[in-house]
Amino acid sequence: MVTLPEDASLQERKLLTWLIQDNGVSRGTLCTLLSGFNNDTSIQVLHHSKFTDLRKLAHPEVYGILLEYARTLWLDLNLINYMTIEQGTMIFSASHSVKHLPFLYKGDVHYGSCTAKRTQADQYAVVEFNNLWVPCRLTYHFELQIAGRAATMCSVVKCMLMDDELPIFPWSIQ
C-alpha cells in the first residue's frame, strides 16, 4: 500500500503523517520503512573509486542481468556484450562499467546487501514490482557508468516466495 484508501478518515491520515514525520530511536522498524517509502530524497552511497569485475562475482549471471537493464535504460546506445565486436555499438564492459556498493541510504533508511563483506545487516526490503509489494533479499547494489551518461544506481534482488505451508506470522509456527 503506497497511499491510504480514499475513504480513510482524517484521524487515520493524521496518525500516518505523525508516524512518518516522527524520527530517531523511538521509531520502530515499520515506521522506519514507511518513512523510507514516503521519502522522496535522493539515494546516498559510499562512492568507490574502483570498478568491479563482474566475472569474478559469486553470481556469474549478474553481468547478463545488468547488461539487459543497461539496454533498457540507455536505448539509444546499442550496448553489446564485451565478447562481441560490431560497428556502431558500445561495449558494456564486464570490468569497467560497474562499481559494487556494499550499502546505500534512501532518506534515513540503510539498505545493506547479503554479499557485503563487513556486515550483512539490513539485507531485506519490500520492493514494488508492477504495483505489488514483494519481500526481497538485497543481493547486490551497483552504480552503472557509461561514458557520456550520468551514473545510475540499481540493485539485484531475490524475491522471497511463499506457499500455503509457510505461516503468515512467526508465532503460527508449530
UniProtKB/TrEMBL annotation:
Q: Which domain of life is it from?
A: Eukaryota
The protein here is known as Uncharacterized protein
Organism whose genome encodes this protein: Bondarzewia mesenterica
